[in-house]
Each structure stands twice: as C-alpha cells, then as structure tokens.
Amino acid sequence: MDIRIVVITGAGSGLGASLAKKYSDLGCYVCLLGRTQTKLIRTAETLSRNHSIYEVDISSKKDVAKVMQVIKEEVGQIDLLINNAGVGIFDLAENLNEESIHQMIDINLKGTIFCTQEVLNDMKKRNQGYIVNIVSLSGKRGKATESVYSASKFGTRGFTESLAIELEDTGIRIFGAYMGNMKTELWEGARTEETYMEPDDVADIIMESIKPRKYVSVEEVIIKNNKEKY
To answer: How far apart (Å, rounded) are the C-alpha atoms in residues 63 and 60?
Structure first.
C-alpha cells in the first residue's frame, strides 16, 4: 500500500522530528502530534510539504479520540501511525515520586494503547495500515535507574507483540523498534552522549524496515550503538 497520511506522536523533537521530515520529503502528508505547540511548530518549519499540527495529551483517551477524529475529517484516513511519544525519569526505584511513575506509565504505555485503539477500526475496515511502536531497548532488558521506565516499555512490548498476533490474518502490519540511547532530549546531559546514536540514522533504519516487500515482513528491529551492551 502507498503511505499517504502519517501520524507521528512526540513529533516536536528527536526521532519524531526526524521521521516527520523524512516522510514529508517523500511526499506524505504528516500530522504532528505533541504536548508543546512551540516544538511542533519548530518541526513543521523543516517540512517540505503539507502538514498539520495537533497539540494533544496522549495520556487522555478523550483527547486522543478527539484529535484522531479531527484528522480523519480534515485530512483523511491514517495510513501510518508512529507511536513515538515517550518520557523518562531516571533514578533508583525508591526515589521515584508518584507523579513521575504515573507520567511514564500514562504516556509511554497508555498513550500508545489509546492512539492505536483510535486507528484500528478504520484500518480493519480497509484491511490495510501500518502501526509502528517506538519501544526502546529498555523494553527488552532491565537497567539500573530505569525500573519504572523499563516497566512501561516492557508493557509496550507486550502490547505490540499481542496486537501483532491479533492482526496476523489481516493486511495491517505492526512493527516494534527497540533502540538504544539517542542524541535526544530524553538523554540530554548524559556523560557518554558523544557515543549516542543520531535520530536521523535510527529513522532511516525504521523506514527501511517497514517498506513493503514481496514475501518479506519485518516485525521488529533492534538498533544499538556498537559499544552498547545488550
């Protein structure tokens, strides 16, 4: 299928912004979703073709439903949903406050679920569509100071793998991306940031992995720095 309309959450910076620009350059209509309008505008200024901005809190099912309906009415049926939005607060488990815990579970896990739910019915009616979940290597293995962040990502991994089974007899494709640390706001200030991956490189790998190919289907990909342990 041709990808015409792309919805990207967390499109205001990092990997989301990189994916937005690359899909825009391919001629797609890109819908930029995020919490901060100024960041979304900054991303929009880099795009070469049609796009629209939607300020939304993906941890609210009501807000997500409203925005997805607006996109459907104003732009058209969504061909590709990229669940990229995420937040991380890193500390020892006993030091994490209640707000931080809710934030990571609500955005990383519930946000992915809510956004996916809103596109599934239309994709099933057309028997086509792509859903890409940006999970992180923290959804594959635990790590010190990432207990709740990893819990949210393990949950997203479980949702992704279960959804793939539910949809295996349909024309809808589910893809999970598990990457290490990137040069994004999430890891800003890290001591080893010079070894972190470039979002553009990760975006290229994801886009190449989900290209339709005869007799080939890539369900997930692990992307890590050469020096990163896994």
So the answer is: 5
Residue 99, H or E segment: helix 98-104
> pLDDT per residue over 28-80, tens digit each?
999 999 999 999 999 999 998 799 999 999 999 999 999 999 999 999 999 99
pTM of the model: 0.93
- Give the whole-angstrom CA distance, residue 69 versus residue 6: 14
149: annotated active-site residue: yes
Instruction: List the catalytic residue out of 23, 29, 54, 149.
Output: 149
Is CATH 3.40.50.720 the right assignment for the domain spanning 5-223? Answer: yes
- Rounded Cα distance between 140 and 227, Å, is 17
Q: Strand (E) positions, the chain?
A: 5-9, 29-34, 51-55, 80-83, 129-134, 172-179, 220-223
173-205 tens-digit pLDDT = 999 999 988 887 655 544 445 578 999 999 999
- How far CA 172 is from CA of 23, 50, 119, 153, in Å, comes to 19, 25, 11, 22
Domain boundaries, the chain: 5-223
